[in-house]
Amino acid sequence: MNESICIHAESETNLPELIIKGNASLPIVQGGMGVGISNWRLAGAVAGEWAIGTLSAIGHSITPAYKLLHKGALIEAKKQYPNGVPKEVRQGIFYDTNLVCIREEIRKAREISEGRGSLWINIMMATNDYERQVITACESGIDAIVSGAGFPFALPEITKNYPNIALIPILANARGVKVIVKKWAKYGKIPDAIVLEDPSRAGGHLWASGVTKIHDKETLLEISLPETLEFLQSEGLNIPIIVAWGIVDRADMDRMFALGASWVQIGTRFLATNESGASQDFKESVIRAKESDIREYISNAMLPARALNDSGIFSVIEGRTAHTRECVENCLTHCAFRDGVSALPNGETPAQMCILHALAHATEGNKSEAKNRALYFTGTSATRIRTIESVKDIIDGLVGR
């Protein structure tokens, strides 16, 4: 258990202290943004302000922060395979190095948070090596596993030996909440909290069945939150709801609390901070974004997504045709770029890009030309953000310190 906010915070706030699994924090969750955006510096800084810092689990091996570690493992493999390292071995090195990175991210974030707040990690169902990522995070002392991009039905079973770690699914409507609650009941488990995402505002991959569905009425938080609370009350369940709604300021937070939310999740506002792992080009694109600069499209992960139009990768993929491609990393369970998928059953066309490398190009430390191949995931709140600030200044403004 961490120590009480009320005793150890530098000053009083006008927000309640909330506790999950014995860990106290302010009701602010920094969203888990991959690849390498929600890094140890960002998550650790947020937790250090008595909020909840969320790490990203995927793709560390190819980011500038860890590429030497990955390269070193490949060099060692070449000694064993002088005639060429087999694809399966290279793929295994990518996965194994990523697990080392997860341990290191958690260790470094914990160090700079100095025991304050909580540290969570976002692990997507849509990624391969999901179970090992979860177990590695648990072994490394993470406080909670946050999981979306699919229904994390098996998460209670995977984590059965780690009862002190909170399990938090990401969902988009009351129907999804009902499904996960009933499935987890078979394991004698209920979610320790639920992230309820509004796809009409969120960034990155969105919880919807297509671009035309991300503005559906039932997934608007003004609809989905009351319906979810009504369902939980009917079941006699007291599960905290964390809302992801494109929150930027205290007025946004208060609006969500008035609807019945327990916590708020904030992504894009924390992306444009000194501490985030985004490149300077990415951050500056966010703070100058207009409504017309935001694109909604189908990702190669075959999920709807939201990103900035000036992402360099969009010009690179123009004219690319779908065909099966060799893939070493094999990061996604379903990938239109790898598998040669040109159209989905509903007629939508998935982007022909390697999203792993495009997101890695958007991280701090890449060469300047990387911006021409980068993907800038963002939420609609980018249009309201005009400054790059420190984590401390943002949280101080949100909590009234």
General description of the model:
- The chain is an alpha/beta fold and 401 residues long.
- The chain folds into two domains: 287 residues, TIM Barrel (Alpha-Beta Barrel); 87 residues, no CATH class.
- The protein contains 15 helices and 13 strands.
- The strands form three sheets. An eight-stranded parallel beta sheet has the order 3-11-10-8-7-6-5-4. The protein has a three-stranded antiparallel beta sheet with strand order 9-13-12, with no helix packed on it. A two-stranded antiparallel sheet has the order 1-2.
- Strand 5, helix 5 and strand 6 form a beta-alpha-beta unit.
- The longest helix is centred in the N-terminal third of the chain and has 27 residues.
- The protein is globular, with a radius of gyration of 20 Å.
- It starts with a helix and ends with a helix.
CATH architecture of the largest domain: Alpha-Beta Barrel
The CATH homologous superfamily of the largest domain corresponds to Aldolase class I
- Which blocks of ≥5 consecutive residues have pLDDT under 50? 6-11
**CATH class category name of the largest domain:** Alpha Beta
Query: What number of domains?
Result: 2
* Approximate shape: globular
Number of helices: 15
Average of per-residue pLDDT values: 94
Keywords summarizing the entry:
401 residues; alpha/beta; TIM Barrel; 2 domains; 8-stranded parallel beta sheet; 3-stranded antiparallel beta sheet; 13 strands; 35% helix; 13% strand
